[in-house]
Amino acid sequence: xxxxxxxxxxxxxxxxxxxxxxxxxxxxxxxxxxxxxxxxxxxxxxxxxxxxxxxxxxxxxxxxxxxxxxxxxx
Length: 74
Fold this sequence. Notes:
This protein has one domain. It contains 3 helices and 2 strands; from the N terminus they run H-E-E-H-H. The chain starts with a helix and ends with a helix. The protein is about 45% helix and about 10% strand.
């Protein structure tokens, strides 16, 4: 979330869940704006420091699967 905000994408935690970021673009978003948003999300994910999910007590298997799905869809 910090990297997204630093790159100009406003987002918040979804339902105060620190492992889920919520993006809410306008319903009138153009294809070019959507492409720019996806590019900024890709850039932010690439800039994020790697962290060890297996060694973390806070993150579990469900979080690992969520992150892999995000990266796979980008």
